[in-house]
Write a structure and sequence with these properties.
Length: about 400
């Protein structure tokens, strides 16, 4: 299938892709609340000629486009939920829903997948196999919408899975490619230190949870620094601490909450054991009690090396080798990992950073903006996958 033909058709479709994205940006909906978003996407898919559409969950949507000849089944996933952020952009299509904003590019992901569906329908007689378009809800809140869709069976009989993320970390017109571990597993820990409260003038009759907790916080840093190999990356961060109600009262307890980011399952399992041992040991030394809990979030996204190589070769053919960036692992999490249990998968980063347009703000920021030219490159990525994996 001729890349130049598909690229020309993509150029013709590009104004519609921008319009789709801007509509979604204007009407953001939070995780598990994407009812109008899903209705809009279904309306657009039916207008494009897609007839096989299902809602396996309340706010998730799956569309299937069958080619004219038998072949493999590939799935492409786009997340559709927004963030609980009040937008601070003066844009004609800024969010009209107070306290909700597409500040992570999900509106663009959905628009790009609509574009892939549009051209797949147009070229369906020439395609070999089936394209499954997964418009996934609730990526932003663990346990996430991907796990729900997987449990509903959307990955049954899928041979290959693909995903992507628009990113202000990379320049517009570039693709971030990496085989193996791409994103970190994202887990949460909670430690409650139960001491014995009392008057601040008589600490000798108390068991101070704050002093104990301070030692626990400092000692937790030795888990990574002194218990893991230097070749096993991990980030352990204490992000919330709560204790006390008055300046002159030693409180009864102290709560510590934080996150763990890892890439290997071995390290992910090892670290909480070390954390609990350290916390309980320090608490016991001070005569305090320790309540430790660890909640697994999203697993690490693992890019299949062979599939990633094929995608990169397709990108080089379509756009040229100078648009490929071989990137390091990324610490943010992604629930795309919940969909990739039974088949090889590949997830690509798409650059949207353009300081001249002010699109270099970080994601999850109220002033986040997207260089919409990145939608052209992202849609091109998806079309190159469809053409290469389902083409004759």
């Amino acid at each position: 299938m001729n890349p130049e033909t598909w690229k020309q058709e993509l150029d013709e479709l590009f104004p519609q892709i921008v319009a789709w994205r801007r509509h979604l940006h204007r009407h953001p909906e939070l995780s598990f609340q994407e009812h109008q978003t899903t209705a809009y996407l279904e309306e657009q898919l039916r207008a494009l000629g897609v007839t096989e559409i299902a809602r396996p969950t309340r706010t998730g949507l799956v569309a299937r486009i069958t080619g004219g000849r038998p072949g493999r089944t590939i799935a492409i996933r786009a997340d559709i939920d927004a963030l609980p952020i009040q937008e601070e952009n003066d844009l004609p299509f800024a969010s009209e829903n107070p306290g909700a904003m597409h500040a992570c590019g999900h509106d663009g992901h959905a628009a790009m997948l609509l574009a892939a569906a549009a051209l797949a329908v147009r070229h369906a007689p020439a395609l070999c196999g089936e394209l499954v378009c997964i418009f996934q809800h609730a990526e932003e809140i663990p346990p996430g919408g991907a796990a729900e869709l997987y449990a509903a069976g959307v990955m049954n009989e899928v041979d290959e899975l693909y995903g992507c993320h628009l990113s202000s970390n990379f320049p517009t017109g570039t693709f971030g490619v990496r085989a193996g571990a791409l994103t970190a597993a994202t887990d949460r820990f909670d430690i409650t230190i139960q001491g014995k409260g009392g008057h601040s003038s008589m600490p000798e009759v108390c068991v101070d949870p704050i002093v104990t907790g301070a030692e626990v916080i400092a000692a937790l840093q030795t888990v990574v620094a002194r218990n893991l190999r230097a070749l096993d990356p991990a980030v352990l961060s204490v992000c919330q601490v709560s204790a006390g109600d008055a300046y002159n009262i030693i409180p009864q307890e102290m709560a510590i909450t934080g996150s763990l980011r890892t890439f290997s399952e071995e390290v992910r399992s090892q670290v909480p054991v070390l954390m609990e041992r350290i916390a309980r040991g320090i608490c016991a030394a001070h005569g305090a009690e320790c309540v430790f809990s660890f909640e697994r979030g999203y697993a690490s996204v693992q890019n299949d090396p062979a599939l990633t190589r094929r995608v990169e070769e397709g990108l080089v053919q379509w756009f040229g080798a100078d648009h490929i960036l071989h990137i390091e692992p990324l610490m943010p999490g992604e629930d795309f990992s919940a969909l990739q249990k039974d088949c090889p998968a590949c997830f690509i980063e798409i650059g949207t950073r353009n300081p001249a347009l002010g699109t270099d703000k970080p994601h999850h920021n109220p002033a986040y903006r997207m260089d919409e030219e990145g939608l052209r490159w992202g849609a091109g990525l998806l079309l190159s996958i469809v053409a290469e994996r389902l083409g004759s």
